[in-house]
Specification:
Elements (H helix, E strand, L loop, with lengths): L1 H19 L41 E6 L2 E6 L5 E3 L7 H9 L12 E4 L7 E4 L5 H15 L9 H10 L8 H25 L4 E9 L6 E10 L5 E10 L6 H14 L6 E6 L3 H13 L13 E3 L1 H13 L3 H14 L3 H13 L16 H13 L1 H7 L12 H24 L7 H18 L5 H30 L7 H11 L3 H34 L11 H28 L12 H8 L3
Parallel strand pairs: 6-9, 9-10
Antiparallel strand pairs: 1-2, 2-3, 4-5, 6-7, 7-8
Helix pairs in contact: 3-5, 6-7, 8-13, 8-15, 9-13, 11-13, 13-14, 14-15, 14-16, 16-17
């Protein structure tokens, strides 16, 4: 009996030391477990007197403690408190051992169902392996994806939620998350630099200036667009940088050139697309002075591209000025009836009474984005009768649109539709748009000319303002748009032949020849640069090739004769054969032009 007492006392002492050496934050309930009140009482029986040895294997994983006058069994791994009285038995303790997540030695019964890659797509039973580093990486990716604040990792609610999902995951501090995010940034930056460096095609850049409303600081976003080796359209944001005031042409030019040099793109540029303003025009001139002309296509003649979406925005804004009063009245009405939930409910109730079929929701527009104004006006037109009826139900509703306001808005909204469709088409990012946008921009030009013939004075004035703005940029943007249309095997020269006849009349043949000449110049430029690059490769590999055997003079002349004829035929037929081939059918719902050039480029 004495030896048994010593063994139990020794086990209790070791268990107490193990408890003190455990990790601090293992469980949320750990703080609720008090320290040993009476170490000697731990080895007492349920009656508090007789000492005995616990023979159940459950006690290899639990420690018996007297808490609040009752015996409790404390799990050595997760510190969970269970009943430890003699009347409780040990079945519940053995069941807990089977499911304890903190158990160091797991059995097959603790394996989890998780999908594994297999040919028959079956789900197999396997052991779950927790990875702290992978969890940290996914946490950083989540913050990047949804733009969460870094401080969220310090919130108690987030920590409790993370513990519930995976008790083994240790939530890191905000500084650690910041370092993880910067590590991801450096990895993605290196991948993008390798992709751009290995890519053989030219790079087109777009620049957007952005001003923070809160901090009133200016930023420049530089995005690259290119076609990769698999003929897939790619887009990568290269830099989002703070540009100190003043935002002069010199400051902007230096910021852009620094970015080009950092990414080694100064010799791979094709075009630079920016908004239309005088500062940007001067900036382009400064950039061209800093870049070698030989590195650009046609010595930079096509380098400056004006943003078509911004041009459409300027054209529409000039037209919107004519009905600004009517638009402000409708904007006020929408703001009035969406200001409070009670007014919104009254508006919906009135629309239901009048049996208005529309289910659209009234929303205010963003004054700097005309397409949102177009959507706001279209929705308001469907509730025209509702606004008229509500003026008799609400005494505070004073500024009600008149019939003249609705008439102007309806007329103008019908004309804005073509601009809205063009903007939606141009906003595509998953497919090339240059080959399909030429006909749309020509439709807009012809529509403006038709509006000039209308008897309505407002429509005439609107069309006049739009035409002046459109003509200012037409010559600058129609060249590359026309070339893009020619390189579409469904249209080739047909599109410009049709539209140029409508736009230029008798001068159409002359304008068509100008476009063809420009296209041939670009093709020749690419051939020339391709030949130079091939000569460099040949010169590097010539050291490894054995010298050619000496031949007679006539044989050499014959080889020169064949080479000259072959080169002449290739230079003559490369583009001509493409233009002479029959057109592809246009009845397909979707045409992947890059896939077509990938398969037919060998010709």
């Amino acid at each position: 009996m004495e030896s048994n007492d010593k063994e139990v006392e020794t086990a209790a002492t070791v268990g107490g030391q193990a408890l003190e050496s455990k990790n601090e934050s293992v469980s949320i309930e750990e703080n609720e477990i008090p320290q040993n009140e009476n170490l000697d009482a731990e080895i007492m029986g349920a009656d508090g007197g007789n000492k005995r040895k616990f023979r159940s294997p459950a006690w290899d994983h639990f420690e018996r403690k007297l808490i609040g006058g009752k015996w409790k069994a404390i799990c050595n791994d997760c510190k969970k408190s269970l009943g430890g009285e003699s009347k409780n038995g040990t079945r519940h303790l053995l069941d807990h051992i089977k499911t304890c997540l903190h158990k160091k030695q797991k059995t097959i019964k603790q394996s989890l169902l998780h999908p594994t890659k297999s040919n028959d797509e079956t789900t197999m039973l396997g052991t779950y392996h927790f990875n702290q580093d992978h969890g940290r990486e996914e946490l950083a990716n989540m913050i990047i994806l949804h733009e969460y604040p870094l401080s969220m990792v310090d919130h108690m609610g987030f920590r409790r939620y993370s513990y519930t999902l995976q008790p083994l995951f240790k939530v890191v501090s905000r500084n650690t998350v910041k370092n993880d995010i910067m590590k991801i940034f450096e990895q993605e930056r290196d991948k993008t630099m390798k992709l751009l460096d290995s890519n053989a095609s030219r790079i087109a850049l777009t620049i957007d200036m952005w001003t923070s409303n809160n901090q009133k600081r200016g930023f420049m976003a530089i995005t690259s667009h290119f076609i990769d080796a698999s003929w897939k359209l790619q887009s990568r944001l290269l830099r989002f940088i703070y540009v100190p005031c003043p935002h002069t042409a010199g400051v902007l030019a230096n910021s852009l050139v620094d970015c080009l040099l950092d990414w080694n793109l100064d010799r791979k540029l094709y075009t630079l697309t920016i908004d239309n303003c005088t500062t940007n025009d001067v900036m382009i001139e400064l950039i061209l002075d800093k870049l070698p002309p030989s590195s650009l296509i046609l010595e930079g003649k096509l380098f400056h591209m004006r943003c078509c979406a911004h041009i459409l925005n300027l054209i529409v804004r000039d037209g919107l000025q004519l009905i600004s009063g009517s638009i402000e009245t409708i904007r006020y009405s929408i703001g009035f009836w969406t200001e409070t939930p009670k007014r919104d409910e009254k508006f919906i109730e009135t629309a239901r009474q009048l049996k208005v079929p529309s289910t659209k929701i009234l929303e205010l527009d963003c004054k700097t984005r005309w397409n949102s104004t177009y959507l706001m006006l279209n929705t308001a037109l469907e509730y025209k009768d509702v606004f008229a009826r509500l003026k008799h139900r609400e005494s505070l509703y004073k500024r009600v649109p008149t019939e003249d306001d609705w008439s102007k808005v309806r007329e103008f909204s019908s004309k804005l539709e073509i601009f809205y469709d063009a903007t939606e088409l141009l906003s595509g990012t998953k497919y090339p748009t240059i080959n399909i946008f030429f006909s749309t921009i020509c439709d807009i030009k012809l529509a403006i000319d038709d509006w000039l013939l209308l008897d309505d004075n407002v429509a005439n004035t609107m069309a006049t303002n739009m035409k002046l703005k459109f003509e200012k940029y037409w010559e600058m943007m129609n060249c590359l748009l026309a070339i893009g249309s020619i390189l579409d095997p469904r249209y080739k020269m047909k599109t410009i032949q049709f539209y140029y006849h409508l736009v230029y009349g008798d001068m159409s043949s002359f304008e068509i020849e100008k476009i063809k000449k420009k296209l041939y110049e670009i093709v020749e430029e690419y051939k020339k640069k391709s030949k130079q690059s091939q000569e460099v490769k040949d010169s590097r590999s010539s050291y490894l090739r054995p010298p050619l055997p000496k031949r007679g003079s006539y044989a050499d002349k014959f080889e020169m004769f064949m080479d000259s004829n072959t080169n002449t035929e290739l230079e003559k037929s490369e583009l001509d054969y493409y233009l002479k081939e029959s057109l592809l059918p246009r009845n397909t719902s979707y045409f992947d032009i890059l896939c077509w050039w990938k398969t037919n480029g060998i010709k």
